[in-house]
Structure formats: structure tokens, C-alpha cells
Amino acid sequence: MKTILIYLLALISGTIQLYSQEDTAITFFPVEQLIHENCKKSKDTNQCLESILLKKVELALNNIEKSTKSYKDTLNIYVNFNTNKLGEIIEANISTFANDSIIKRKIGDSLKKSITKIPAFKVENRKTDKYISSHSFNFYFTQEVNHKFTSISTPENEIYKGGEITRIPLFEGQVYTDQQTDQRNFQSQIVNHIRKHFRYPEIAQEIGVQGVVYVNFKINEEGKVEKMRAKGPASLLEEAQSIISKLPTFRPGTLNGQPTTIAFTIPISFKLQ
């Protein structure tokens, strides 16, 4: 099962909007399909589109080969975007990721610019504006001693098969409304939870330690928090993890209507007055 990543780096406080009736009009299948102008005659338009994006990723990597470090592990490049009503890629919504910080920094902007140049798609099975389909691609490479990147097979469960609609987990009492409202309500509930359980560690206060702790965790298919990690000042880590460990069991997030594991990164700020 694929893990969805969500970064809540700007927590929003505000009033929670609760609705008495959930929006059940959404249809997940058939999934949204993007038809590239060069793929119209292809037997597998998804594979054709994936090949086009692979070439763009390879070109971005080729431009940094001479300056990049020797990479021993498998390199993973992730690309995600969605489109507007005209089938054009929404530039502001393009996200890219590499599991190597140096490569991520060097190819990020150039890869995004390259993706924005892709002409408008013909969109089949387009979904409602309430829940926009995302299109995600994973590419894997090995790097040889001469800094040549070699593409290797993508795991079967990560091969692009069309658009995906992700719904984030819900706190008790929440219902699904639309993507923006769902995320805003979730963020607000997280803020309220942090405020309720926040305690400044005495030792950190005594020695004047302050800063931000980034807590990474997953909410699994059963709605339970798992695999928590934290990064920040050492004397603040335990308290930040304690706050997140007190989160309740959620209604699990879904991917195309099926329960899925979703990963979160949440910052908790410790500041002395």
C-alpha cells in the first residue's frame, strides 16, 4: 500500500467548521486520465506519459552529473501535480522530491520549469473541483562511479495508473466536505490539540532552550498514530513527541476511497517569553 506524504508546515488556527451531512457525491472510479498530445495513439497512455516525464527527470539529472556526489543507495525522484479545467498543469501545485538533499536542491527548480512546459492534456473522467485528482510519479535510479544515473524499474504498486484522490484523516465529529475545508479543519484541530497538551520542559526553561521541533509520524489504515520521529533541540524532543502521542484514533485517510497510510510533518514551536 502506498504511503501519502502531507507536510503541515504552517498550522492554521481558527474556527472548526462542522457539517451535519457528508458529501458523498464524489466518484473515485474510473480514475482521471491525462492524455498527452504525443500519446493519443499509444496503447497505454499512462505508460507513455510516464516515459515523457522520465526523460525530463533524466535530463535534469544529466545537468548535475559532473558536480554531484557519489551516490551509493537507490535514488528516488518523486513528481506530483494536478491540472485545471483546461488540462493545464497548475504550476503552483507542482511538487518534487528526491531522497538526496543535494540532488533535490539542484534539480528542483529546473525540473519544475520543465514540467510546466508540458502542453495541456486531454482530460478524461475529470473529477469535481471539491476533490481534485493528483497525478504522482515515482522514478528510481542507481548511480555509477562515473556519475551516470541508470533508471531502474519502479515497484509495481507505484507505477502510474491515473489520478488519485486523497482524503486526509478526520477527527471525531468531522465529515468530508472538500479538500481545502478538510485540511483547514484538520490543521485547526491539531493546533487545538497542541495547545491543550503543551507543556514547556522545566529543564529547557532553566537553561533557556527554545526552538522548533518537527515531528514526523504516520496515521495508518486503522487511524492510529505510528512510526513517530522528531528533529529539533534535544531537551524539547520528548515533550513534542508526547504531545503527538496523545492524538486520538482517527477516521483513516483514504486513497481513491480505500483506507491508506498518510505521513505528516508537524512543527511544534517552543518559545520563552
TrEMBL record:
InterPro entries: TonB-dependent_transducer, TonB/TolA_C, TonB_C. It comes from Cellulophaga algicola (strain DSM 14237 / IC166 / ACAM 630). Belongs to the TonB family. It is found in: Cell inner membrane. The lineage of its organism: Bacteria, Pseudomonadati, Bacteroidota, Flavobacteriia, Flavobacteriales. GO terms for cellular component: plasma membrane protein complex. Keywords: Cell inner membrane, Cell membrane, Membrane, Protein transport, Signal, Transmembrane, Transmembrane helix, Transport. This is TonB family protein. It comes from the Bacteria.
